[in-house]
Amino acid sequence: MTDPRYLKRTIVKDVVSSRFLPEGFRDIRVYLPPGYNELLSYPVVYCQDGEQFFNFGRIATIANQLVLDEGIEPFIIVGVDVDIKMRTAEYAPDGGRHAGYVAFIGEELIPYVESKYAARREAGARILAGDSLGGSVSFHIAITYPDLFHQVISLSGAFYPVSRAIAEQAEDLSRLELFMIVGLQETAFKSDRGVFDFVAMNREMKAILDAKGAVSHYGEHDGDHVWGFWQQHIPAALRTFLHPEA
């Protein structure tokens, strides 16, 4: 049974205006940690597929547990919602809405969050997180805005050939640190782009990242391309970048 303390969560729904997105705005949801105080400053985890991270990943409940029971420094979570019909267009680097979405994150979402909430304004306090294509777009955002982001959580990242080619072209990724996992049963996943071996895909991406100087915390585990698998590894992902208070 889940400890009732973990379920007392403060989640604010908000809207960010945008000149880069065709709709002119994007819905976000913001988790504020226990004891949130506007006079302090907090690290922030920026999640693609925001609604799914909260509903299926249970990231707010996990965050409460880490803060309340493990002494992890309190942190904010910003979930960026996505229209499932536009997801590939926004998240895939060859998608028609990709450039606009990446610019929205780097040039609109970050300034908005850091002006409205008590968010720490340094690259070491910003973490990008995503599952599947959300993991790959997090990587692309990080390399597009290297002064803003150094840390990426990729859960079964969909590093299709176009993403790997972009990584290959990068000169130096030594400032980048990634938490990467993939499920050993993800060897024939049917995506909207065909059937792919996600294990081979992530192994190849890790090799490219290693060659470019990035730090990768890489793991292969029993699991499939589903939230039930990813949810199990969210605590470890967060612990990688968020540490106990001194």
From TrEMBL:
InterPro entries per UniProt: AB_hydrolase_fold, Esterase-like, Mycobacterial_A85_antigen
Gene3D superfamilies according to UniProt: alpha/beta hydrolase
Family matches, as SUPFAM superfamilies: alpha/beta-Hydrolases (SSF53474)
Superkingdom in the source lineage: Bacteria
Pfam family, one: Esterase
PANTHER family found in the cross-reference section: ENTEROCHELIN ESTERASE-RELATED (PTHR48098), IRON(III) ENTEROBACTIN ESTERASE (PTHR48098:SF3)
Name of this chain's protein: Esterase family protein
